[in-house]
Structures are given as structure tokens and as C-alpha cells.
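User: Fold this, then the next.

Assistant: Folding the first:
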Amino acid sequence: MEIGQKVKIYRLRDRLSRRNIAGKLGKTGVIRNFKMTDGSGVGVIVEFDDKSATWFFEDEIKPVE
């Protein structure tokens, strides 16, 4: 995964903010940055067409070809 890459949200892990991001399932967006998650993992910040952005674990997204 790299910044600027287009990705699709294909699954959601359980997180406290899941309610807010459930509507992003199946949507596509662009990776804008990386985020340390829990000290042992890296997440990605994805920006969508409506200019909203949130972070996802790498196993929640797939590259769009």
C-alpha cells in the first residue's frame, strides 16, 4: 500500500467508531497517510470523494485496479 493508491473498503473490524464508518463499506477512496494503530500495527487514512477521511487496518482494504 502506498500514499495516493486507490482502495476499496471490503470489511470492517470491530472498533468503537464502527458506527461512523459502517457507511464506507464497499466505497472506494485514496490512501492519504499512514497511522500507528496499537503499537504493533499500521493503519491507513483513506479519503473519500465527499472529502471525509478515516483510518482502516490494512486487512480492511483492497487495492482498486
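Now the next one, as you asked:
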Amino acid sequence: MVSGRTMEAAVPLITSYSNRRREVQAFDDTKAGVKGLVDAGLGKVPEIFIHPPHTLYKTSYDKCSEFSIPVIDLERLDKDLVTRQGIVETVRYASETFGFFQVANHGIPVNVLEEMLQSVSRFFDQDTEVRRQFYTRDYSKKVVYNSNYDLFRAPAADWRDTLSCFMAPSPPTPEELPAPYRDIQMEYAKQMMKLALTLFELLSEALGLDANHLNDMECAKGLTSICNYYPPCPQPELTQGATPHTDNGFLTILLQDQIGGLQIRHRGHWIDVPPLTGTLIVNVGGLLQLITNDQFKSVMHRVVANNIGPRVSVACFFSTAMMPSTKLYGPIKELVSEDNPPKYRETTVKELASHSFSEGFDKEAPLLAFRL
């Protein structure tokens, strides 16, 4: 039983298996994640984490400045109608062109952002035995810690551990949350919900709709907080922090530390999304692309592995995927016409999320199954 061994004993056991399934199971049984491998002093990337060379796309450094995503200052949002309309227009351009933008002066104090990142580090810095009590692959639980949600299906694992918390509409009790970030997570979720309402107003106006349209559709009703921990990698050129993917919710708000590594796919190039102190990254999810009938784009993005780390990020996904609901979502009727007919069939949030989950993390076009 691998889980009863020390990580030092588990590492040679993992690398001795020829069958990938057994190697993956051995790794998962340690319940120590990628951080456990690093803590054990592992000098090489285990085979289950090695990605085929052709999938490790090169960064287009010469395009990073040319294609840099917009940074939107929200401080003057309510100054006057002209200023607000300028912000709305930038949100529209970014959502149609990049699928990503950054927001500054969003109302969340920098010290709250920093404390959130530090609390994630505190969780992963705990002894393995303490972390193990939260380790599970049962996603019906409100608090889930593990490494690679698609570990047993993906062709290659990513160099990443994750702590997930389902914070809305039915949040866990404070006692259910890990102690190192219990208080800040509750506060951070409240701040994120407030910001999301504002962002969905701007996105609604960018679509030419009433400001309350997307909020009335309950786009901000569900919130899952995904705390990612990317340990330093001894051979970052062989693996990835996060395989290229798109998000399946309505919207994602991301907080990343100063190490960087997030990249988006734009016009056939991988370009950096550099860390900017105090800003938050916003990206369109698959459900928002579906209900806007492809006006807003959910684009591929990834995280490259690094040997500096650990890198920490907190992604807030706005989706009700964990709720059993029969509510159907299809292209918004005000956005379709004879010249622009619906491109997607109606679906529930849970159906789209379940499809994406079953297909795996690295599918480029999870919405294809829902196209008319």
C-alpha cells in the first residue's frame, strides 16, 4: 500500500512500473501531490508527467507586446456616461478579440489579494499528513484537494496541485475550510461575487443588452474557488503547469502571483499574460461564448512549468455546474436574427460541464458537441 510509505520510498516504486495506470495510481495513493515529489528531492520529472514534444508549443515572444491584452481601469466606472461607455467598449473589444482582459482599481485592496495568495502557500506548506485529510477525488464534496482532476484520463499529468472550494450558492461552513486560509477565503469569495456582478453588467452592456441581463440569467450565482500550486520543476521543458484548455463556465476571475507563466493562444501564437500588481485577469468561459452566439470568445490558455516557483494562483469560476438544475441556456434571443441564427442548441450548465470533464482538460473545442 503506497499511501503508508514515505515519499522517499514511493518515488522509486512509481518509476519502476511500466504500466501507466499503475504509475498514476501509485502517485495518487501517496496523497502528497507534486509538492511531495519536490519535497522528496526528486531530480527528474517522472514519466507520467512528460508531455510529447509536439505538444509543448513555443512561446511567441515577439508577439507578446504586439498582442498584449487590454488593462481596464474600473476606478472611474461611474464618473459619467461617456467614461462608462468607453470602458464598456474596451470590454467588448477584449471579449471579442482576446477572450481575456485585466482589471485594475477593481475595489479589492491589494493586501486582500496578497493575503489570499499567502494563505494558499500556507496550506501547501503544511506537513503532508495535514494536507492528506483533504485529499479526495469525490467532487461532490465542497472542499477538494488533489493533483490533476483528470489524472487517470489525461495522456500526461501536469506539474500542479489544486485545492478547490465550492463557495456559492451554498458555501461550506468556516469549519469545513482548511485552517490556513479559512477567514480570507470567505472574505475573498464575497469580494469576488461583488466584482462579478459588476463585470456581468459591463458584459451585458457590451452586448447591447440591459445592464442586468446576464445577472438576471444567474451567471454569477455559482462560484468555485480553484487554488493552484505549481511547485518548481527540475525539468520544466518536459512538462506543463496546465495543459492548453478553455474554461467551461460563464466567466473566470484569476489572481496570479508575480512569477507568471499564464499564456493565451491568439492568432496562432502563444503570448504571455504578464503579472501586474493589484490587477485581476478576467476571461470568457464556454457558457458565455455559447449564450452570446460566438460574439464573445472562450480561448485556449495554458500555464508553462517553471524552475523558480512555487507559483500560486487563485481562479474563481462562475458557474452553477455543481447544482442539479434543469435551467436551459442557449443563444440569447436578442443576439440572434435571420442573418445571425443560433449556432448552439440549448443545454444545462451541468451537461456542458460534465461533457467537458469527461472529454478531458486538453480538448480545444468542447463546445463543438453543442453546435447546431
